[in-house]
Amino acid sequence: MESPTRHPAVPDTPPSPAPLLDGWETWLARFSAMASEATRNAPIACKAGCSLCCSLRVDAWAQEVFTIVRHILRFWPQDRIEQLRVRLQSHSSRVLSLSVLQHATTNIPCPLLEDGRCSVYSVRPQSCRRLHATDVSACKYVFEHPGDLDAPGSIHGPSYELLSRAMADTQNALQEIGYDPTIYELGSALHEALSHPDAWSRWTNQEHAFLFASRTPTP
Ligand code: SF4
Fold first, then answer.
1. DSSP classification of residue 216
2. Could you tell which of 31, 118, 122 is best to mutate to test the pocket of ligand 1, judged by most ligand atoms within 8 Å of the CB?
3. For the residues 97-118, what does the mean pLDDT come to?
4. What stretch of H or E contains 113?
5. d(Cα 48, Cα 37) in Å, to the nearest integer?
């Protein structure tokens, strides 16, 4: 059985809002249940082992990044964490040299992929849970032609819209109680969270959590 690891980046003791991260994990399970319901009778082509959409730019909020960090620090052995740190360093260097549009039109594999599978599947962000494709050949086309902004794609529209509204409502509720509403790029934010424990302090103090991570402008 994996043993929990304590790390100053995400303390479990008061006054940390660890209960907020517990609540977030509960929300993620509900979000996935909502996604299942919204796609129940749809011809969804997504299958276990397919990671074609894991080279897209991933947006995440701070609480999602810290939930992943907490999961990793609790359950991963040190050598696996060190391997992830190396991938995150390389990912961040690459992403931080690109504009948001350049990143969005370049295939850069998520540093959380291990052997083609998500290594944090149970705590992956909402933006990953929101995507459901109806035609794998369209996913392949987008993967092979990331710069083609006119590619039709095959995202299941009704579930995407429903889940996007749920994401916005949830984030508005967190913003109303003072938490960072910035949209960060997952890999560079995760790298900062694991390298700079101050990020956690800033978030708990209701400031912008990440100073160096790539940010996605809000519409
Ligand atoms: S967090 Fe997991 S599901 Fe999301 S892009 Fe990364 S590997 Fe894929």
1. E
2. 118
3. 96
4. strand 113-114
5. 18
